[in-house]
Amino acid sequence: MKHSHAAARVLLGCIRLINGSLALVAPQFLCRNIGIDPELTPAALYVFRMFGIRTVLIATDLLFATGQTQARAIEQAPLIHASDTLGGVGGRDRPLTGSLGCPNCGHLGCFNTVLALWARKDLRV
Fold it and tell me: How many domains, in total, are found in the chain?
């Protein structure tokens, strides 16, 4: 069972590394996928890059750190992903629309939250 917790941590780290890298190097692609025209809303590119660097740093802690640094990343992951999920579904604001749209943002966030909770089960806090 312990191996499945490690696999959840690694999968979560890989998902974060891919999404964060895309946000850093191809924010226009991600904008278009959630219905934002980067030509009309250039500030969205900045927001995606901020999201990207945070996501890459969290991924590196999940994948490559050891000891307390990795344990802290695993411990904090459920809160981070739960807040990402709530942001993806839009809360009381108008939800995101577009080719991926709000439901897929929420689904990915929920999947990541479940992975984060599963990875956390192995911690001896």
Answer: 1
For residues 61 and 116, is the Cβ–Cβ distance under 8 A?
no
3-state helix vs strand vs coil in the chain, percent to 5: 75, 0, 25
Whether the per-residue pLDDT at 95 is higher than 80: the answer is no
pTM of the model: 0.79
Please check whether residue 11 lies inside any domain of the structure: yes
The confidence score (pLDDT) of residue 4 equals 83
> Which one, of 43, 45, 35, lies nearest residue 100 by Cα?
35
- 36-40, 57-61, 111-115: lowest mean pLDDT where? 111-115
E strands of the chain, at which residues? none
Q: How many CA atoms lie within 13 A of 115 on its CB side?
A: 22
| Sign of the dihedral through C-alpha 74, 88, 15, 61 | negative
